[in-house]
Amino acid sequence: MVTFEFIKQNLEKAEREYEGAKEVLNKFTEGWEGQRLKELLLGDIDRHREEFNYLTKKEEGLKGKMDSWEYELKEWNKKSREFNEEK
Question: Which residues form a coiled coil (predicted)?
Fold first, then answer.
């Protein structure tokens, strides 16, 4: 299973690579065709970033739910032990 930390590290790496690629792209795209290619490539990158951000938020939500369920399970186990001790 992919962890939140793994995703975060990959996002940071992708951000650094994106900035480097953007600089190279700026150097080699001149004229109308080059500018159109640049727009297409940057659009793809932005679309993937949006998808990644969506998945990151979704994972954070799931992590919160798991933490809540874990807490509820601990409370249930605690009450169960107390009930069994009273018997």
Answer: 4-31
pLDDT tens, position by position, 57-85: 877 777 778 888 888 888 888 888 888 88
DSSP codes of every residue in 32-63? HHHHHHHHHHHHHHHHHHHHHHHHHHHHHHHH
Judge contact between 4 and 63, C-beta under 8 A. yes
φ and ψ at 86, to 5 degrees? -70, -25
Q: What pTM was computed for the model?
A: 0.36
12: containing domain: 4-47+63-86
Q: Domains in the chain: how many in total?
A: 1
Look at residue 53 and tell me if it is in a domain: no
Find where tokens 């954070």 sit.
Answer: 60
Q: What is the pLDDT of residues 33-50, one digit of tens each?
A: 667 776 777 777 777 778
